[in-house]
Structures are given as structure tokens and as C-alpha cells.
Amino acid sequence: MVTTVDCPQCGKTVAWQQDQQWKPFCSERCKLIDLGDWASENHSIKGEDLPATSNQDFPDYH
Asked: How many angstroms separate the CA atoms of 38 and 42, rounded?
């Protein structure tokens, strides 16, 4: 019996197999849409706030 998962982008059923190139996505298109959502900060993972820094902390940074 083949294990299946739902594509996180479109919900289509995907076979979880060695030869399934885009798993857990159903296609390259869904994979790229998801990547774009992360890049544009539509997705995020909650974490602790970082302390504020100033340029004095990084003198070679312009």
C-alpha cells in the first residue's frame, strides 16, 4: 500500500514514493508558489524577538 499525503499548496493527493520528485508537493508549480510565499513573508515561524543593534556594532558595514 502506497502512503499518500495532501499537497500543502493545493490539497491534491500525492503518493509518498522515492520517485515522486516534488514531494510533499504535487508539482514544481506548487513548490514554487510555496517558496514565493515564504520569500514574501506570507508564511513565518514564530520566534523570539532579536535585540536591536546599531551600526556601531558592525563598523565595516555600510
From this structure: 6
